Amino acid sequence: MISNKNKSLIIKYAFISILSYSFVLFGLYFFVEYLNLNNSISFLIVYGVNYLFLFKVQLNYLFKVKFSKSKIIKYIIYILSFYLIANLLFNLFLILNMEYITSTILTVLILFPLRFLVSRKIVFK
């Protein structure tokens, strides 16, 4: 059974994730469609800002821990690891002839609880 403290953390994590994904979608759209920036440059800028935002929010608001060099190193490893896993899952689903939207949704649904657990138990412990 999930404790009330963990339920609260999961709800906060979900809310932060929704804000994060929304920022990425709208940010990419703005840079590409209105500023006519290259897709890859836009992706780099938006995700860079988003990951800085997520680190700060998860550190101070969600898990309420103090900054340390080890946390930033673990966070960078976490980002790179989940980026690789997400790409592998996404492409596996595509190989299985799933639509890219379905592949995206499944990837997010599979990784969401894992990302939360790794963030809580390893990165921001």
Features:
globular, 4 helices, mainly alpha, 2 domains, single chain, about 120 residues
Strand content: under 5%
The tally of domains stands at: 2
Q: How many beta strands in the DSSP annotation?
A: 0
Mean pLDDT: 90
Radius of gyration: 16 Å
Task: Report the helical percentage.
Answer: over 70%
Main sheet: strands, sense, barrel: none
pLDDT < 50 stretches: none
Backbone structural class: mainly alpha
Distance between the termini: 21 Å
Write the H/E string, N to C. Answer: HHHH
Shape: globular
Q: Provide a count of the helices.
A: 4
Would you give an account of this structure?
It is built from four helices and no strands. The model has no long low-confidence stretch (mean pLDDT 90). It is an all-alpha fold and 125 residues long. The two termini are 21 Å apart. The longest helix has 31 residues, at 4-34. It has helices at 4-34, 39-62, 69-95, 100-123. It folds into two domains: 1-64; 65-125. Helix 3 (69-95) runs antiparallel to helix 4.
Write a short abstract of this structure.
With 125 residues, this protein is an all-alpha fold. The chain has helices spanning 4-34, 39-62, 69-95, 100-123.
List the helices and strands and how they pair.
Elements: H1 4-34, H2 39-62, H3 69-95, H4 100-123
